[in-house]
Structure formats: C-alpha cells, structure tokens
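quick one, 118 residues, struct below
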Amino acid sequence: MKFPLLIVGIILIILGIVLWVQAVIISRIDKNITENKLLTTGAYAWVRNPIYSAFTIVYTGILCLQNNLILLVLPFIYWLFLSIIVKKEETVLEKTFGQEYLIYKSKVNRCIPWFPKG
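---
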C-alpha cells in the first residue's frame, strides 16, 4: 500500500467517525426526532446532513486503503444519488419546519462540512 493513501484513508475514516459520533450521539438525534425538533447545533451547524457526510467520508477513507485510485470515483457517484434523496427529504423538512428550515438551509451546506455557504 502506498503510504500517502494509507495516511489519507486513516485520517478520513477517523474524521468520518468523529462527525458521525457528533451527529448521532452527542447531538442526541434520537431525542430531537421524537420531539419533532429541527436540530441546528453541533454537527448540524456545520452541515445539514452530517450522517450522510460521515458515511461518505468513512467510505472514501476505506477506498483509499484499497490503494486503487479508480475506486475513488465511487464516492462521487454515491454523492449524485444522495443528492436526489436529500432534495426529497428537504421538501418534507420545508413543509414541517417552514421558515425556520429555510433560514437554516440558507446558512448551512447540504453535505460538505468544511465549506460554509457564502
């Protein structure tokens, strides 16, 4: 295995796991779902879909560990399909939370936590 891909893969896996833990466990997503609350703090202040993002980051890290650069096209294909799903979910969230969600949506990126919207 090439050393740079190994390091990148491990870093991505760790970052993805940290994001997932923040989104699910620390943010107590289960409590917010059962109480029908819009979660906009913690990981959800960085990205609107941190669980999907975390999965993609971990998945990309695992692909890096495979040492096959051709496989790295798969996360982009996954991202395209994910975008379709997320847009449908956002329609439901807009109906459920109204203006509160629209304001949140205007401030926080859909899937990329490191690049806030301008």
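The mean pLDDT is 90.
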